[in-house]
Amino acid sequence: MLLQLLGRGWARVPRYGDIGIRDGSHWPVVILLSNDIRHDLSPPLRSRCVYSCLEPPTPREEVRILRARVPLASPQLLADVVKIINCIRGIGGVTDKPGLRESIDLLTALVRYEPGTWSAVLIDEHLCFLGKRNKDRANLQKGVARLLQAIRLPHPDIDRWVESVCTESNSTLEETNDQK
Prior knowledge:
By secondary structure, the protein is mostly helical. It contains nine helices and two strands; from the N terminus they run αββαααααααα.
């Protein structure tokens, strides 16, 4: 039925009748996100799609996005999450690397918890945000020490970007308060 909707804009559904739009000039644009699993999709579905690739955000862009999406996160927590995600993206054996959505979810969860110190137990409790497959979570559990090391070691670029973004957002907040 999805293929009929994509191919001709409408489909006949038993008990409901026709759904969709028959006039091709009014068809909506449908965007399917596949996380680069194009070859896992069926050939009929692939034949009805136009493909484009969006590069994931750089760590610098991710800092800005995370700060905008989770403004209550402390600068230190923001930097720590970006360091963790950056480290995981470099670990081999993890099929589904965490994306921006996972970064936002992890940071949101940690803001509620606000860890004072990082531990293997804390990271292990939050691996559900980072590994979406059992094999990926198992590989991440083996690499918890590496993730802890990534958090503890200074990363000059990430630390500078976080400082810049937090200073920038604090200035904007102060200007907004002054205008009120």
